[in-house]
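Bit of a strange request maybe. I'm writing a small parser for structure token strings and I need a real example to test against, not something I typed by hand. Could someone generate the tokens for this chain?
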Amino acid sequence: MTKPKADPSSASRAPLATLAMGVMLVLAACSVEAPDDPNAVSQGTPPPTSDPVTGDTQASPGVFDDRVVFGQSAAFTGPAQALGKAMRMGIETAFHERNQAGGVHGRTLELVTKDDRYEPGFAYANTRELISKDKVFGLIGEVGTPTSRSAARLVDSEGVPFLAPFTGAGFLRDPELGSVVNLRASYAQETEHMVERLTADLGVTRVAVMYQNDTYGQSGLNGVLAALERRGLEPVATWYYERNSSAVKAAAFHIAAANPEAVIMIGAYQPVAKAISLLRMDIDPTFLAVSFVGSNALARELGDEAAGVFVTQVVPPPDDVDTPVVAEYLTALNAFDANAEPGFVSLEGYMAGRLAIVGLEACRDLTRECFLDALQTSQSIDLSGVTLRYGPGDNQGSDEVIMTVIDDLGRIVAVANLEETG
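Reply from user aminoacidic:
Good idea to test on real output. This should exercise your parser:
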């Protein structure tokens, strides 16, 4: 019996289809920006009736008789992992402290975390999973501007609280994002403070900017440009590098060629550290970085080259024990992990956790709507000496910006002006 001949075109179609499907999956996971269109996701998730793992009854998503579950998508691997790990540690420190005291209205606090590698596509996928599968009450401590951008529209369309993201991006200050509650000052405020100090303290007029080539870098760059324009100035050079890389040689080359008096860095700690090292081979400007850089991580990365680098901060120094919330943070951190190193990022995470507790305390009948209303309609919230103010059209609690410098011992020291070198 003669066998039918195989169709060579059909034989090749199967592997091609498999390859195409694989490419589609990779592109979906690693897209530069996830869709902002809220119509791309379901409108309103009905409250689940039970926990998907334990089967425990829930009154509202993430709310059980004995616990409340929050979610966090952040970088726990890759070149920005120190930021994600520190933010997570701070949140867990606040939750552990409260759990040891009996929780909130008899409920303990839990945090479910997922690694987004500081990539928007993974952040979007993590956020969908945290909402639909893990059914968390709210999101807390998202790390980064591009990752927050990919998640914010999704959580807002679902009415899920998006609390204290670790970014000063302007779009998150949009009052139309009704589920977003910011803790920190904006990048526009940080860069305004930098330019004010450069011009007033040092008389600097020649400023260059190195920025990350995404929404984070652009947000910071726009802040610098606006601050310079208010003073009749323009940058002498601007150059970029790609996110999650340390390919900064081109940026360093172009900036060095402009011979600036100061360089403002809108980036993560690894590429910023490498760029400073490269630039110091040719020029000797004043270096400044915004808070997202992660001061402790930057100081470790630079080592002996760290002294003299300025960083703006949006929370009090973690050794300022005269501020009650800092003293409480240090005690709680030691109880949670005696080997942990205090730092600005974990302190911000701790304050984010404390802010979440304020919202939970206000709602015995706990729902997302009550939680958000309790935070957003408060005239002021006292976090043990740090006052946050919210109101109509204002979803940002703090406007505080503090200038610090890395001293000869690698410590991050608050300074009143740029002539102080610690």
